[in-house]
Amino acid sequence: MKSWQRPENLLFLMTAAMSISFGIWQALLNNFVIERANFTGVEIGILQSLREIPGFLAFGAVLLLVLMREQTLALVSLLLLGLGTALTGFFPTEIGLYCTTVLMSIGFHYYETINQSLSLQWFDKKSAAHKLGQLVAVRSFAGLLAFGMVWLCLDMAGFEMETVYLLGGGVTLLIALACWLLFPYFPQHVEQHKKLILRKRYWLYYALTFMGGARRQIFVVFAGFLMVEKFGFSAAQISLLFLINGVMNMIFAPKIGKLIGHWGERKALTVEYIGLMIVFAAYAVVSNPWIAVVLYVLDHLLFSMAIAQKTYLQKIADPRDMAPTAGVAFSINHIAAVVLPAIYGLLWLVSPAAVFLTGAALAGGSLLLARLVPERPEPGQEVVWRGVNLPAGPTTS
Asked: Residues in the chain with pLDDT < 50?
């Protein structure tokens, strides 16, 4: 192997490929569905619920490991993501957008599942938080390229949104094929279980994952929708907002990763959830578009601290459990995500503020769970209650 043919470089490239397609899909979505398909809050809620169904079924990625290696499945998932994004602009109808969204989402969620598994296997525990922060930075840099492409194509070159979707998906397809051809297969240090596994001693990780999925849907679905519907942001302005987010994450995500390594997961998650409570409560009453922009950026930075959930799992889990636990966790993360966007779409018609206030309440619930994370988590010390580590039972339970 050549010096650049390292596992982390493959992860960086695959993450960049994912971010380009998903970034373009996300940057154009609200304007595309409103301008081309006349969506209201109800239709966008249904679309986002459909988008989360493959996430709910992410446990299926573990079952596919019987047929193919994790590295191969990651690349196949990227090809599906790129194809779904490229086709989006060609089907500007309600049913058409639902179908291309599901195709794109299968690739996105299966890639994210395998990406988490591979990163926790390939990064050692001491440097995992920092390297995961670097992955976030790569994701943000690729997002910058995607959002810059949107802005240049729409405002400078005068392209239609359909063409930008095609370009974004095409770039992801090319990068995925290059990764397939240029990188060797990297053997696993520990053979992964190829069946679904639920362990009692991981319950706190599962609970944090569930709450995070419910809370994040409010931001992903409705924060951007608020910018377009309430403040009249154009597609180019939304892409510039994403550019700002990308720059901030590119600069601060590796530093946040180092900070998590220094602080520990308990303190990092506590800071994240207190910050999110404040941000969501502010969303509910914001009337100034510039304040909304600041909240949007802060929201993204705080979500970078969710790295602590992954390193918490890495410290308490059996190394053979990374792939099956990643699949189960993504499914748990999307239980609420499948249902909530459609419900909140209806609530949005009555009171947008109520949508964000429930987000603040969910962040408060996550804060209570975060206080149960030990200062130094490890197998046998997964949960702490009033300063006392709770017995976890056998580590194979």
From this structure: 393-397
